[in-house]
């Protein structure tokens, strides 16, 4: 057989195979089409259902389902397509195969020619102008929402008008003036006010207790003095900021005030066992994930609630940096430290913290009924506002918290509030789109007012949309456009500054909203950063940073009231608190005796000691200690003996002679007169200056 004949046979075989495959493909597509049509025929009972399904699919292709629509489609969870998981088995391959074989018999007898004639595909009258915007957790509910404490509004009860919010005259209740001291207190006194309920004695006690429970080897009990030195060293670590803690004790980088007051091993030993709570008191059904650090933050919260609250306040999130393995860890895009543990803070415009809330998911200290009606953001705001007095404050927050019901509830509590807003939380207000505002030019704005009736009075919530580079939506219960002002903005096209008209609410929001971010920024300058896998240690050091930053702001306010021009900055204030803690602890601290080695003495002779020649250190007097250290009545009194002249010991303590008192505190008049006549005037001044 020639090669040409062989090639013709191969081509004919290949052609026949292609025809077979094409026939299989046609049969498969025909059968797949029949399956689709049968399923469509079974699921639709009439032509209206088909049209409605097509309409829903068409709308769904360009919209995002809201939570209300999802709940409606699910039937509130009552009609589930899932069977009970406790019955039946997961091995259903045989049942599925039987069903497919049974369906195959139906498809073979099915009339594919007339199926399309039974369906009317006319969809010309479908209205496709419906666009549903996305809603978030806290929204205007359509169900009855009468809370036990706060009133929430039904969606259908809100009436929108395309007009500005009627600006009412705000008359604040007279606030009692703060009692300022005649002079600023020492920095250490401001700092210690934040640890009134958890003392250094408690820290030492629970640290010793945990070391005993953990069977720490060669553990020496700590005390109050050592705890002060321990915390003071942490504050210095935040100031200096070496990348590794061990460097503070290494010869090349040694920091004397740290290394001279605590050894490296003792520091790490205390840090490993540091506790402020007894772990055995943790109940088995405990839902508080911050149980181990709760006493510290409760003490700080108590002091923050005692502060004189200013008029302009804001609420926002704060992140404690942490990237270890932790269920509480959160991610917040846009934050300087996006990974960490989340806190909600109530701050003033200047950064002072007045209240705080630790976030722990569903176990956060929030009222569940309030959370169901106002969502997470709204319930956080209402929780932090519980301590606020009526008709005294203006509150600002961002669009995570803002909702119509929240502003309405705050208006009932006589707390004025404003914030950026998401339009889908306000029951579809008739706002102008960004496209139309862009045509009007930068600086254009449009505002609407929503009103509702409650207990015989009308509450009004205003929404304004201001177009700068893009549309910005703000909502308020007291002001929208108000008295506008002018601001300069850079125009990229014209390459020059242009003047825009800015609503008053935008100016107030920009001025007062950054309090939490300012407080977080001040902490970040000298943050106590230690690499550790323990999230509890990170929360403990953050509590020290937060308390010290708030203490510095208290000092600044007092110094301003006392007309002190030269104030301590945050660095000097933190350094002074750290040095005072170390000095107070060192003056009260004793060195425990070392245990002797156990066993027989070595028979080998000890190596001879080689004398090391060293230069005699310069005799440099220590700087004058701070007043809070001088007058703490610990180890600063003069020592009396029978020497002829006043001298100093190596520790700098004054040794006064010619005073005939030995181990007694009885007063001898004749000896006192003799002592006074003996000392010169200069020696007397020196003695009293050192005491």
From TrEMBL:
Its name, as the record gives it, is PiggyBac transposable element-derived protein domain-containing protein
* Residues annotated as domain PiggyBac transposable element-derived protein: 187-552
For this protein's source organism, the top of the classification is:
Eukaryota, Metazoa, Ecdysozoa, Arthropoda, Hexapoda
Which InterPro entries does UniProt cross-reference here?
A: PGBD
Instruction: Give the species.
Output: Acyrthosiphon pisum
Region described as Disordered: 592-625
